Amino acid sequence: MGPPRPHRRPHRRRGRRRRRPPHRLGRPVIDEFFAPLGARASAHIRDLADGRGLGVREDEPVILVSVVKLFIAWEFRRQVEEGLIDPAATVRTTAEDRLGGTGTAGFRYDSQISVWDLAALMMEVSDNSAADLVTARIGAGSLRSLPARLGLKGTRLLGPPRSILEAVARDLDAPDLQALAHVLDAGAVSTAELRATSAWDPDRTNVSTCADLTAFLRHVWNGPAPIAADMRTWMGRQLTGGRLSRLAPSEVRVHGRSGSLPGWLNEVSVWEWPDGRRHAISVSAQPTRRNFREVELAMSRAALALTDAISR
């Protein structure tokens, strides 16, 4: 017998190194912004040029609240472009239309205003009554069918602000919206009772996902130029919100739409960079404490982290 053969380690086939899936990118980072605040968030970013996206819990349901106005505005502008609505047609707003809040919703007296200006008030100052009146012009059925027409499988649109509030009134056995306002102003409903109503339930209210919202924004930005231009203008003039842009570089042009309920803080935004990059961002946070300002700052940190991640 000859000398023993030297021991050889089994041959290990070397393949191409697997890249980490994009959806895992940022999960620990995003959670680190919110967890110390007692909050939870979902988020997504999408490149408007090539459609690449990444996010955290981006397919979980998000209660839209006033973000629904983005869909109402787009459908309105589409119908104007197709000649289905006269934007100069005047609408008379009366006490029956007022829901309280900004714009016509808080007017003291009746007024005459064009449907176009109602759409602008809806977007720029989040006028709830204007949203109702614009929806009446476009047709509630057109709003409800919009997600299917655009392939937004995680989005369900039930109606404008009035329809959501009417559902809350029924949940609380209030006979009408005036009675609901009296109940809420008197503090006769606990926070737990309020959060048990349909407005806080993703199965019974206007809902989407962060991934659907960035897909919709890409559709808006890359759609017909006149429609996209007006949507950019309205979103650029939003006077409330600005949650995602607080830490944005000064040279970034921001267009946004926000929505809020106690326990829900949402914002969608498009950031346009000087070098031509355009990113659609959606962040939804669910705070459990009364630390909304800190949570809003965390939302902006999340937006920055997402733009950094997708730009690598």
Description:
This protein is of the alpha+beta class and 312 residues long. The chain has 2 domains: 23-159 and 206-310, Beta-lactamase (3-Layer(aba) Sandwich), CATH 3.40.710.10; 160-205, no CATH class. The protein contains 11 helices and 9 strands. The strands form 3 sheets. A 5-stranded antiparallel sheet has the order 2-1-9-8-7, with helices on both faces. The protein has a two-stranded antiparallel sheet with strand order 3-6. The chain has a two-stranded antiparallel sheet with strand order 4-5. Helix 2 (68-81) packs antiparallel against helix 10 (225-236) and helix 4 packs across helix 5 (140-150). The protein is globular and about 55 Å long.
What class would the helix/strand composition place it in?
A: alpha+beta
Gyration radius, in Å: 23 Å
Q: What is the total tally of β strands?
A: 9
CATH topology of the largest domain: Beta-lactamase
Major beta sheet summary: 5 strands, antiparallel
Q: What are the secondary-structure elements, in order, as H or E?
A: HEEEHEEHHHHHHEHHEEEH
Shape: globular
Uncertain runs with pLDDT below 50, 5 residues or more?
A: 6-26
Amount of beta strand = 15-25%
**CATH class bucket of the largest domain:** Alpha Beta
What would CATH call the architecture of the largest domain?
A: 3-Layer(aba) Sandwich
Summarize model confidence as the mean pLDDT: 91
Note the total helix count. 11
Q: Distance between termini? A: 61 Å
How many domains in all? 2
Helix content: 25-40%
Assign the CATH superfamily of the largest domain.
Answer: DD-peptidase/beta-lactamase superfamily
In the sheet with the most strands, the strands line up as 2-1-9-8-7
GO molecular function: beta-lactamase activity
InterPro entries: Beta-lactam/transpept-like, Beta-lactam_cat, Beta-lactam_class-A
Organism: Glycomyces terrestris
Protein name: Serine hydrolase
